[in-house]
Amino acid sequence: MPSSSLAAPLDVELRPDRPALLRVDPPGDAASWAADHREALRAQVTEHGALLVRGLGLKDADQVGAVFARLAGGLMTETEAFAPRDPEGPGLYSSTPWPANQPMCMHHELSYPLEVPGLMLFACLTAPEQGGATAVADAEQVLKALPAELTERFERAGWLLTRTYTDEIGASLAESFGTDDRAGIERYCRANAIDFTWQPDGSLHTEQRRSAVVRHPLTGRRCWFNQIAFLNEWTLAPEVREYLVDEYGADGLPFNTRCGDGTAIGEDVVQVVNATYEEHTRREPWQAGDLMLVDNIRTAHSREPYTGERRILVGMAEPLRLADGCPAPEGSGR
């Protein structure tokens, strides 16, 4: 059934500055409601990139886990995390820890592993007093709006994520790889196209080259799909960047990004990317009990600064190995 025929029964509100919104009457059993409406909800996500469902009255992790399972089947176990999350159930996590007064800029979740989540699920159990929206931006529109010279450079060369694992900042080896055994980590890196070096102090440095532009597996449309700006040093608050550079050196930052050919990404490029995201941002303040579904390939998401307590649960589903997710080196003939 075409997705357009499902819009009227679901009565989805479409507004240019906000994500598609579906208001529902509180169901007796949210998980059963999710199962009954799964196909219609997924069609709306495919059509609009993201959908906020309001009125389900989600109240606890068990209920959220049941709803997520009915909507997405099996949830993914997070690997290669850049920051530790608290587990809230099988495949169910707390939102990424990040200072409440700092924005978490637009990104696609886990765009750097070979297997990426196709669908993100968010549930709000406690809404903040102010701010804290999980905003979204259409990656097709962002790609079209970015300067052609910039996108052509990254489409040709890809992007490079560099990481140095320390005991002080970010996810530990065990949290990222599921083990702290050197042999196990090395096997994972070789199997997942990650170059690795053990440093003299025992820390691990990795580099992985990925595509910056991919085709959506359903629509075939080109999307700006990466974390070039989000994980770059110039997105950090100036005082945080200065501390990390002083502490670890410019080449030893816990995470950073480069162009796929190894050249540095300037502050001006990061500013252009983040400004373009902002021009295409749609936001709706969270209300307790809300559910949000996000097509992770087509749609970037962010987290805005907030005050008060904020509790968002997160699930990742529909793992994909994108055909164009890992580019061949330039000059390889591919």
Name some characteristics of this structure.
20 strands; 2 domains; disordered N terminus; Double-stranded beta-helix; 334 residues; 28% helix; four-stranded antiparallel sheet; eight-stranded mixed sheet; globular; alpha+beta; TauD-like_sf
Characterization of the model:
This protein has 334 residues and is α+β, with helices and mostly antiparallel strands. The protein folds into 2 domains: 4-130 and 284-318, 4-Layer Sandwich (Double-stranded beta-helix); 141-275, Double-stranded beta-helix (4-Layer Sandwich). The chain contains 10 helices and 20 strands. The protein has an 8-stranded mixed sheet. Helix 1 (4-10) crosses helix 3 (38-48). Mean pLDDT is 92; it is low at 1-8.
Mean pLDDT: 92
Number of structural units classed as domains: 2
CATH architecture of the largest domain: 4-Layer Sandwich
Per DSSP, the total helix count is 10
- Beta-strand percentage range: 25-35%
What is the molecular shape? globular
Helix content: 25-40%
Q: How are helices and strands ordered from N to C?
A: HEEHHEHEEEEEEHHEHHEEEEHEHEEEEE
Main-sheet strand order equals 1-2-3-17-7-20-5-4
CATH topology term of the largest domain: Double-stranded beta-helix
